[in-house]
């Protein structure tokens, strides 16, 4: 299987041994994105809504680098530290996927990288 690493300076640098995204013949696999501002390299400290917006901006930037858009996303995985944040995360997430949203799951987890409150990964079809 041939694969291409997708990278953009408009999304956060990976904080470990992984790529922002990997493109194959049929899919773009985007690694979990957390609310890091790629300009400053700092975590977004605002509300869970502010953090979710940043995560979605990071995903959008990676999709753009892979010559795709949010319309091409077929599956997302959302990880939250507190399921009580679900409604706020869902509200912001829904603004990015207003028509024909992708399949997804939302899971509460005990801890996320850098102790953030939300992380989202996705798969887009080419």
UniProtKB/TrEMBL annotation:
Domain of life of the organism encoding this protein: Bacteria
Q: Which residues form a coiled coil?
A: none
**SUPFAM superfamilies associated with the record:** YjgF-like (SSF55298)
InterPro entries, per the entry: RidA (IPR006056), RutC-like_sf (IPR035959), YjgF/YER057c/UK114 (IPR006175)
Query: NCBIfam families annotated for this entry?
Result: Rid family detoxifying hydrolase
- Family affiliation: Belongs to the RutC family.
Name the record gives this protein: RidA family protein
> What is the originating organism of this protein?
Agaribacillus aureus
């Amino acid at each position: 299987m041939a694969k291409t690493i997708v990278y953009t300076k408009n999304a956060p640098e990976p904080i470990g041994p992984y790529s922002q995204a990997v493109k194959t013949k049929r899919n773009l696999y985007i690694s979990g994105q957390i609310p890091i501002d790629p300009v400053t390299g700092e975590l977004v400290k605002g509300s869970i809504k502010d953090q979710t917006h940043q995560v979605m901006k990071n995903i959008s930037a990676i999709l753009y680098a892979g010559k795709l858009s949010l319309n091409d996303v077929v599956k997302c995985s959302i990880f939250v530290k507190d399921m009580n944040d679900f409604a706020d995360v869902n509200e912001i997430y829904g603004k990015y996927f207003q028509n024909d949203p992708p399949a997804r799951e939302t899971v509460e987890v005990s801890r996320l990288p850098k102790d953030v409150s939300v992380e989202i990964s996705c798969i887009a079809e080419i």
